[in-house]
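User: Hi! Is it possible to get a structure for several chains at once, not just one? Here's what I have:
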Amino acid sequence: MSNQNQLITYAVVALVIGATVGYLAAGPITYNKQIQDLQNQLAAGGEAKLRGSLSIAGSTTILPIAQECANLFMEQHLMVDISVAGGGSGAGVKSAGSGEVDIGEASRNIKASELLSYPDLVAFSVAKDSVAVVINSDNPLAGDLDLTFEQVSEIFSGEITNWSELGGPDHEIEVYTREEGSGTRAVFVDYAMGGKELAANAGVKPSNGEMRAAVASNQYGIAYVSFGYIDDTVSAASINGVEAVVENVNNGQYPITRILWMFTKGMPDELEAAFIEYVQGPEGQAVVEDLGYISIY
Amino acid sequence: MKEAQKEKAVRGLLYVTVGLSIVILPIIVVWVIANGVGAISLGFLTGRPYRFEYGGIFPQIMGSIYLVSLCTLFGAPLGIASAIYLSEYASDNVVTRTVRFFTETLAGMPSIVIGLFGLEFLVYYLKLKTSLLAGAISLSFMMLPWTIRASEEAINVVPKEYREASLAMGATKWQTILRVVLPAAIPGIMTGVLLGMGKAIGETAVVWLTAGSGLEAFVPRTLKSPTGSLPMYIYLIATQGHTAEGLQNAFGASLVLLVMFLAMSVSALFIRNHYLRRLGS
Amino acid sequence: MRTEDIISKILFLCASFSAVIVFMITVFLLQEGVRMLNPSFLFGKTWSPHRELFGIFPTLVGTLCVVAGAVVIATAIGIPSAIFLSEFSPFWVRNIIKSSVELIVGIPSVVIGFFGLTVLVPFIRDNVGGRGESILAGWIVLAFMILPNLITIAEDSLRAVPRSYREASLALGATRWQTVRNVVLPSASSGIRAALVLGVGRAMGETMAVLMVVGNPETPWIPLGILDRVRMLTSTIAIEFSYAEWGSSHQYALFAIGVVLFFMVTALNFIATFVIRRKNIQ
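Assistant: Yes, the chains can be modeled jointly so their relative placement is included. Here is the combined structure:
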């Protein structure tokens, strides 16, 4: 009996080990296939000049741009690994300034206090963007919500607390805000809040993605996000009668506009410079426009 | 009569609570499996993530494997050596009691505090950056006390007669430990190490601060590469993903993490039970 | 004999290593955090870094509320389950349940948080009220985390009570439940209490799962109901650490939160390992 048990045990263990080894072997084969192809290409003509790893962190507004550009850049430069993290603009400035990462990102301008702490930051503009107020697409007001900055500040400071005050259903307005380090928050407060404090009971979401996810899953939620995060799961409000679309930012009618930055500590080294140039170049700017942001040109 | 009624009532209550535990505890496992199986495909297991919530999780799986292996490489030998000292060499004095108290304290330390320390000391002060190495070392801090505790227990279970017999035959203390005590204690030690690995593979706060973003689209090539991991990936996609595919990927990644975790705890318990049965007979 | 000496020295160094790490963590935390530890930090009612206001009192109260509720829930389900498993259930039932409970001790917290976020929060929002993100959600998620461990440890200490105690009581004509209440529980109580204290410590230090479900309001307030949203000490560190500038009082305040957490958890550990277990030995 115990012999049979042992046999079964061994069979199971062998199966598990076999499957694991199989996976570990199969993974790289599939995963590396495209890399293999490119390596062959390179062996035929080009040379792998750039090598090394690059870490990028900061604004979650820029995160999609950086991630997409990094993937494209890594396909062209096989010996380069680029890690892209969020964290918010404050984290971008801090981690680039302290040398934790190679490139930081911010969706607002550097603050004076930050320049004092990290005097050797060098900034590069990579895109333009704006900030939109968004609500759930199942909200009865979705599609025709039109707010003035006055109203926006009253909603986000907790003076207007019910949707009925805006002509909507009789339900509490559930306000979400970004954390204090956020560039999107800084820009939003600058333009729209008119010196008022954000409501104390606003729920803090530490990224644009979480703002969008919160509103997309809460019928009575309201939040503000980067233009790059507007899609059909949420509905953007018009400001002063102007629809929140890229064209209206370009022609100067939509009242909020900002520049998105990347930073290096001191002058960028070869790899950092190559990546930033890539983002600023035609391929990077195509990604920028494709993702719903505005090209710097 | 009154007592009999009371007995009945109590029994009823106990049945209800145990029924509640039986229903509640597996809920999450069942939920993950039910939703996650549909997400598993070869492309998902072998692809890399793109546009935040799309694509596969191969780099995350490998990252988690690397992190845990490296963490075990640091944590296990150190933990076993500490346990040998504490149970075989140390006499019960102020020094060993202090060491033991600190070990217990480290075991209860909130993981975010260990992460903060890893960030301050390893990432900034030792300039390791957020990397495989920094993440693995920080994780090993977390795993260390569990390994020590389990190994100590396993060593203490080895009967005194074994040691005495070996010493009587002229072996030195170290030879006795190496040839007699450790082989007898190995199953218990392995159980502890495996349980520690299970803890390490599911840990999020520590890798968040020290290892990498979680969305890395590459497998780490060097010790200083930023490394993605499954828990970080799940955290990011669960909180920020908003499409059906994102949700599915979060389920898929949870299932993979759960399977890896359960594989470790199943083998740990299997070794332990097998070993206990042998000692018992 | 010389090699033996060297080996024992090396082993001693290894054993001191975790003591050294704990010592270093303490030093690092204190060095950065101690300057913020004053009454206005511990009892201040407003946490608002951009206004340079660092009062953790509402956060502290919120944390204690969530932890206390979770421990109560876990106790209410876990201790009776443990009693059932060790005293009233047939051997094979116990074996199956116990080993499945042991399997999920230490299940990755992020998975529990994911469950909380996608199942619990919408459920509470639709059926109980409020935003869903609430103390209630925190209770349930944390109870999930500490329950398996609680059942395991409590059951172990119940079973550690010698059989002869039970037999003596039963022989005197006591019922099963009288035996459990008057003989088994008192003998096992210190072990169970240690398990509870460790559960409190673990709940207090948990970061990710609660972070995902308690709501984290912009300026935390002292909660008045179970549907209120709170901030935990741990989630404040997790959300804000990434952007707190170097050398700013914000950063020191976050380290000070770390110090508070560290001391609370260490105190609980101390109680669990030394006071309760020592009593047990006597």
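Residues 40-280 of chain B form a domain with the MetI-like fold fold (CATH 1.10.3720.10). Chain B has a mean pLDDT of 89.

User: Great, thank you!
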